[in-house]
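Lecture notes, unit on binding sites. The following record was shown on slide 14. It pairs a sequence with calcium ion.
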Amino acid sequence: MPSNALIIDDDYDVQLLGKMLLNQHGYSAVTAGSLGELAREPSLLNAELILLDFGLGDFTGLDIIDYLYDLRLNASILLLSSCSKETADHTIEVGKAKGLRMLGFLPKSRLLTDLKAFLEPLKKIPKAPNSTELSTAIREKQLFLVYQPKQNLQQGIITGVEALVRWQDPERGILYPDAFIPLAEQSDLIVPLTWYVIEHALAQQAEWQSQGLHLNIAINVPAAFVKAEGVLEAFDQLIQQSGVSLTTITLELTETMGIECLSYASYVLNALRQHGCQLALDDFGTGYSSLVQLQRLPFSEIKIDRGFVSLMDQDSVALAIALSIIDLGKRLGMKVVAEGIETEAQYTLLADAGCAMGQGYFIARPLSVTALDAYLSEHSHSRLTA
Ligand code: C2E
Ligand code: CA
Ligand code: CA
């Protein structure tokens, strides 16, 4: 199967020449002349390689980089432009800092002669990762965590973060969880992967506490992990080693279907809860994260799925569902967190409805520790009172 490539450029000549050259190199190439075209036809972005012009209508290369970053693409991006080398270097640097896979700068005047040199190395990159590679990645510590702030919507204070895993693959660049969590779940790797995340999150928590920062850390744990042998003992040991209190940790569970029947897993969750660990039911309102689970496991938090939040300012059904979940949480004495808040309108609707907490790009993106540090210095957040 040929690889897919996309040329983003409003110059028709470049589109034609680029398409022809890419075809010769075994790519099936499509073109887009504007961001509007991309937005109307998202399937265009289903590409492993993007040739990107610096200017596109009113948008600069940096705007486009932001747009591609928002879409969390794994494509390799080659800047193909008549812009200056300084502009190109800066754009590439910004792209790399965001974790995009920037191949370099190809001036348009050299498209015909130099494209090949950029494409050759790409042929050697295997496409999807396999479980052997993931296992190596865990062993060699190629996984790292980013932290997305969770804000108290009533007081406007950041009180916690959700830890989200990333894979810095030496060849492919940064991989997002969708590219390897399903793989981990199909193999037995989900258990060591989850321990890796917990261990790193606890170490980070110890570091923040030593700086006087008081943030709750939420960690995603799949059902398969809770069902594994010796979870409670291993948890106890890690907690003791790190010196972090379980009361500052939230475990987010999605697919808990079946856990309630397994007396062992349900025992584990109850024991963790009794030691002060918070439990959140993630993606509430979808799939298996259903009402009946609230009755069976000791949840303290409900996360409204981002599918409802992202539509609640446009769609009356999504709004009714989100408001009902907030009401349900209040009646059950559980904290409700809205995830995926992207607009001010959504934020205001939720805050006015009395939703306790929120998370989403409108508040902050998932951030590296350094970026979070900078973010917190400009936004109110909870600190330990000495
Ligand atoms: P999730 O637990 O629902 O995590 C929230 C996801 O939504 C994150 O994607 C986050 O970057 C994204 N997000 C946050 N705010 C917004 C927003 O305003 N708009 C949009 N469109 N998206 C937003 P990410 O990091 O790619 O994670 C995807 C999923 O992968 C997570 O969904 C979670 O189920 C899983 N995951 C992430 N980290 C881990 C981990 O350490 N362990 C396990 N087992 N699963 C993880
Ligand atoms: Ca989550
Ligand atoms: Ca979620």
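Take-home: Residues 131-382 form a domain with the TIM Barrel fold (CATH 3.20.20.450).
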